[in-house]
Structure formats: structure tokens, C-alpha cells
Specification:
Blueprint lengths: L1 E5 L10 H8 L4 E3 L4 E4 L2 E4 L5 H12 L15 E6 L1 H10 L18 E7 L14 E2 L2 E2 L2 E6 L7 H8 L6 E6 L27 H20 L3 H9 L7 E6 L1
């Protein structure tokens, strides 16, 4: 299956290399982009809501009869990853939402998107349950991971956000991590500074985020019943991760 990462605002894609490597080592094709665009009259590294369409087209080309990766990429299953603003863009794409300023024109639905995994992010309380996309009464499976020391998207904001999300959804807390617990370094160049210092090391945090991400994606992209049972019960065996809420 394919995993597509939406980086945080003004966070270069290279700062997610350790997360990407951890996910790729478990049998996923991971795409981490970066794109500089003009955003409110300034150059800004902004996530592109059309990424899934671009990546899917390229993956199908790479999977064609004339390519070296013939039959090695599952192009029918895509999982979205996102950090901070990137999580918002990923949630927009999953739920067919296009709201200014992060989306300026409607985009094509990508039916291959089967799950979303987001760190330090959410649409917030201004988005009611009716804004989330449903099929036969269920939404696209979504997991939110929240650093306990995140000052940019606080645990309280994460909890309030979760009240409006639809099933199946999970909220996990990563103890000791701040807003940049998912990036290779504590303070990515050009990104807004985090007010709180983490008590969990970057390496430990990324390992935990990666391991939980693999369990979640295995459950919904590979139909692994054991992984599904573990994430539903909170018995994941992943260090410093606690299931806070689920629905």
C-alpha cells in the first residue's frame, strides 16, 4: 500500500525521514513531498491537497508493464499521514472538504484513500460531524496522535476536536512529546517554535509514532484483524502510547 505524508506548514519534507523509514520498513511505499508556494503574499512550504492524485498517477505508471516496480505497488489502497497543518489538509482531502485558505478550488475524490493517521492535528470544533464524509454510515478510519506537551495543538484542543469526529476514529496520547515529536529534530528550521520542551526523546517518539502507525495501517489497509483488535483495545505494546478515546 501507499502512504502519503502531508508535512506541517513551513516544515521541510526531509524532517520526516525517520518516520518514513520506519513505515517503509514494514512494507509500505511512503511518499514525503515538499513544495514552496506563495501563501498570503509570502513564500511558504505548504502541503498540496492534490498530492494523492499526483502520487496515484505516478504509482500506476511505476506499476505498469514496462516499469521496474511491476506488480510491487498496491495502488488500490492509500493511507494519508499528516502533521499539524498537513493533518488539516489530509483531513480535507479524505472528507472532500475545500475551505479557504488551505483549499481554493474543489479537487477530485480519490476513492483509493482508505485511512488517515495524523499527529498534532485536527479540524477543530468549528467542523461538525456533518462535514465528515460517510459511506454506509461510517467514515474513513482515522487515528489522531497527540503529544501530551504539545502547545501548538493542545491536548484540550485534541479532545474537543474528537467530540465531532465520526466512527471509526481513535485518539492516542504520546506521553512526553511536544508538537514536533514526529520530526527528525526538535525545532525544524523556519517552522514556528514550540513553547514546551519534550521529556521524550525524538528517537523514542518517532519510533512509537511509527509503530502505532504500522498497526493502524495494517488494520485498515491490509485487513489485519490482530492489529485492529490491538488498536481498538489500546493493547498495542507501543511505548508511551495511551488510547485516550475511540468511537
Amino acid at each position: 500500500p501507499i502512504l502519503i505524508m502531508f508535512p506541517g506548514g513551513n516544515v521541510h519534507g526531509s524532517y520526516y525521514s525517520k518516520l518514513a523509514a520506519g513505515l517503509a520498513s514494514s512494507g509500505y511505499v511512503v511518499y514525503v513531498p515538499y513544495r514552496c508556494t506563495i501563501f498570503f503574499f509570502q513564500y511558504f512550504l505548504a502541503p498540496d491537497i492534490n498530492l494523492p492524485s499526483y502520487v496515484l498517477t505516478d504509482a500506476k505508471t511505476q506499476n505498469s508493464s514496462n516499469a521496474n516496480l511491476l506488480s510491487r505497488i498496491d495502488t488500490a489502497s492509500i493511507g494519508l499521514l499528516g502533521h499539524s497543518l498537513g493533518g488539516v489538509i489530509g483531513l480535507f482531502k479524505m472528507n472532500d472538504i475545500c475551505d479557504f485558505p488551505f483549499c481554493t478550488s474543489s479537487t477530485a475524490t480519490v476513492s483509493e484513500i482508505k485511512a488517515g493517521y495524523f499527529y498534532g492535528s485536527g479540524l477543530g470544533t468549528s467542523y461538525s460531524s456533518s462535514r465528515y464524509k460517510t459511506t454506509n454510515g461510517s467514515g474513513i478510519p482515522t487515528m489522531y496522535v497527540q503529544g501530551s506537551l504539545d502547545s501548538a495543538f493542545t491536548p484540550t484542543e485534541a479532545s474537543n476536536n474528537f467530540k465531532n469526529v465520526i466512527s471509526p476514529s481513535y485518539l492516542y496520547t504520546l506521553d512526553g512529546a511536544n508538537h514536533y515529536g514526529v520530526t527528525d529534530i526538535y525545532s525544524p528550521l523556519l517552522a514556528n517554535a514550540e513553547k514546551n520542551s519534550a521529556t521524550l526523546s525524538q528517537e523514542s517518539g518517532i519510533q512509537s509514532i511509527s509503530k502505532l502507525g504500522v498497526l493502524f495501517m495494517d488494520a485498515y489497509l491490509k485487513s489485519n484483524s490482530t492489529s485492529l483488535s490491538n488498536i481498538q483495545s489500546g493493547s498495542t505494546g507501543v511505548s508511551n502510547m495511551t488510547l485516550t478515546s475511540s468511537k
